[in-house]
Amino acid sequence: MDRVKAIRRFTVRTVLPEPLAALDELAGNLRWSWHQPTLELFRDIAPDIWDALGKDPIGLLGEVAAGRLAELAADEAFVARANALRDDLRRYLTEPRWYQSLGEGSPRSIAYFSPEFGIADALPQYSGGLGVLAGDHLKSASDLGVPIIGVGLFYRAGYFRQTISREGWQQESYPVLDPDGLPMRVLRNPDGSAAQIMLALPEGKALVARVWQLDVGRVRLLLLDTDVPENDEGLRGVTDRLYGGGGEHRLLQELLLGIGGGRAVKLACSLTGEPQPEVFHMNEGHAGFLGLERIGDLVRVGLTFAEALEVVRAGTVFTTHTPVAAGIDRFEASLVERYFSTELLPGVDVADVVALGAEDYPGGAPDTFNMAVMGFRLAQRANGVSKLHGDVSRHLFGMLWPGFDPDDVPITSITNGVHAPTWTDPQVQSLAAESLGDSDNTTADWSSPAVSDFDLWQLRGRMRAQLVGDARKRMSAAWAAENPGIGDPTWYRTLLDPEVLTIGFARRVPTYKRLTLMLHDPDRLRALLTHETRPIQLVVAGKAHPADDGGKRLIQEFFEFSQAPDVRERIVFLPDYDIGMAQVLVPGSDVWLNTPIRPFEASGTSGMKAALNGGLNLSILDGWWNEYYDDQNGWAIPSADSVGDDDERDALEAASLYDLIEFQIAPRFYDRGAEGVPVKWVGDIRHTLSTLSPELSAGRMVREYVERLYLAAARSAGAMTASSFQPARDFAAWKARVAAAWPGVHVTHVESGGVDATPEVGEELHVRAFVELGTLGPHDVTVELVHGRANAGDVLTEVARQELDLETHDLGAPAVFLGTVPLDRSGSFGYTVRVVPRHPHLASPAELGLVAYPAS
């Protein structure tokens, strides 16, 4: 007989004894998720319950027996410890930090929009790297004192819980979360009622959402929730699942995130008295409708759409994470028209909305609304998430700036980072604190002899053993859940070996990440796993999207191989990958494997987390690894991406992977010296910790966003809003005038001189360009000499640009510009002249997508 099940579940919060009041304050701020002393405090209350609940302070306090709480309330040492940590939290929340040292001109508030946030296991609002990155962004902003407000959606069922059937097929379940059992609270009006936002929908309907608030250290995170009585059953489900549902469901989620999120920020700031954001950061295109909400506000105070667009663009930053067109959210334009042909944004013409997302360029799909395209058109500053991804993005989206070379496309790059306090194993922090006097491994001096090779090797061994124990426990728990009443297999007790070279692989499972590349030659992999003296073991985890049967088949293929009796103790797939698992799996892996199809990995942060713990990377040169690999911090799998055939590419790259493991990695790991230490391997660990830890920190990443994008966006936004928006009106008018006049701009003639028939280094090239400006003036343009090495097709490389000076501009005649460039190197030299728009409010010469070159 099935067990009786509850029809509804909710959390009853405990009432703590007065001496333990500090625990409520500590549990209510998510700083506990990365503050080790606070985590240890909660663990010590009831270690078994703490582990069973997955490190959830609020859940823990609700489960601990009253007798245990009374015992702790009478324990003076525990009470003093809790009060000291509460006082430390209060100092952390109020003391000046890095951002406060920047002085005037820094934005007082920055809004950061993301469809998912991965902060802690207790708050499962993420699917993978995008959400974990967003969580790390907020945490690092908090540590640095950056005044960010996070904005997202609250998904009642999160992403999904994963189990694996006996046949190896991924199965999904969606446990419903109880908000009252989470560290968040409802945003309320002065009268105590729940504050709500509303979106007008077609057919006279309305979507209502309440706003949850979470404290992520110093950062406030707002999450919108449509599961409220004011909505009908269908609309209550808009925020049911992350990335669930079909096209219209996704559109509703993205309308709520962008437009609803914009309204939630305004409402929250007005209720709390905090400053309204000056800069808005869209983490991927899902939040793109935010810009339209802001345009609507401005239109309703008297600006035209074009003028409002300039205000919005000035203060907006857009980050793309998508290296392939197939990964972009796209909707039927007619569906978007239907939703905006309502009172959703009064005063905003639906044609202007659709034009922002239109694929109105060669190769674009008519009648399609592209969220990434809208993101770029709404933001004056945009970036990819690694140097290689920035280059890929400039090629992928270059059609938005026709006539410009990829290097000129205004998409920069800021390489992702990871939040070190979250992802550094406590044992690494302890060793750094005890031996180096610095628990922050991003600033600790790992080159110091104060940490011996033996210390580092012992540390790695303890983390490997911790992973082995955790994997066995998880597999036993998974077995018990799938096979109630039946004991788990005896070989689970010897699953994995704490002394064996351990390779980890964990991430989402789309096909491009190639989970099964390691299975390409099963016999060769089997030989590596079962080698008599230099065996390896593989620990793998990851989730396929519920609708991705291709990804599920990859998991099944891996699972089936892992069940073979001759290898099953050396290879394992751990179900239900999440933050908690990653915090053990990543530090416990000696080598972190990454095998994407190049260049489809935008960044890939799991390998960064491994490096923070002294793990060595084994990866295709893609994402962040392409710029940081240096031959001492791991191994690069040679890419065969130039091979036309996918099967041949996979075969070549798999063979390289096996060769690296067999002939380089395993021998280096097992080559032991004094005290059983592999000296060369440990040297690589030390080098990795010393050189990569600072670079891969999300603190470095957030500082870059502040210094390179947020401050610039704040200056531009301030310029556009000055004098009752007059600069925005003037700028929009100037753009319209230049765009209308540009067909009349031509480089009619170019003269050069100053060099001999056979030019030599040291000579100077003098150039005079004759430019027809039509109705524009010389102050409206920049004329540049573009020069570099010229290849066989006359394509310029190693390009440099030099502005030419105006010489004359006589009425009725072309304007004449001249300049000189020294010939300071030998070899092929080529040049041309280009004309681009010029205005002090332009962030890039390519911003308007207008350029003129001499006729071919």
Distance between the ends: 83 Å
How much strand content do the residues show? 15-25%
Beta strands, count:
29
> Main β-sheet, in a few words?
10 strands, mixed
Based on Cα principal axes, name the global outline: globular
Q: Determine the number of helices (DSSP H or I, runs of at least 4 residues).
A: 26
Computed over alpha carbons, the radius of gyration is 29 Å
Residue stretches low in confidence (pLDDT < 50, at least 5 long) are none
* Helix-and-strand structural type: alpha/beta
What average pLDDT do the residues reach? 95
Share of helical residues: 25-40%
Account of the protein in words:
The structure is a single chain. The protein is of the alpha/beta class. Helix content is 39%, strand content 18%. The mean pLDDT is 95.
Keywords:
856 residues; alpha/beta; 10-stranded mixed sheet; 6-stranded parallel sheet; 29 strands; 39% helix; globular
Task: Write a brief caption for the model.
The chain is of the alpha/beta class and 856 residues long. Helices cover 39% and strands 18% of the residues.
Write the layout of secondary structure elements.
Layout: H1 21-27, H2 36-45, H3 47-52, H4 57-63, H5 66-73, H6 76-94, E1 110-113, E2 117-118, E3 124-125, H7 129-144, E4 148-153, E5 161-164, E6 170-173, E7 185-186, E8 196-200, E9 206-216, E10 219-225, H8 233-236, H9 247-272, E11 279-283, H10 289-299, H11 305-314, E12 316-319, E13 330-332, H12 333-340, H13 350-356, E14 368-370, H14 371-378, E15 381-384, H15 387-396, E16 412-413, H16 420-423, H17 426-436, H18 453-482, E17 501-506, H19 522-529, E18 536-541, H20 549-562, E19 571-574, H21 579-588, E20 591-594, H22 606-612, E21 616-620, H23 625-628, E22 634-637, H24 646-670, H25 679-695, H26 698-741, E23 746-753, E24 764-772, E25 781-790, E26 796-803, E27 805-808, E28 815-822, E29 830-837
Helix pairs in contact: 1-6, 7-26, 9-10, 10-11, 11-26, 12-13, 18-21
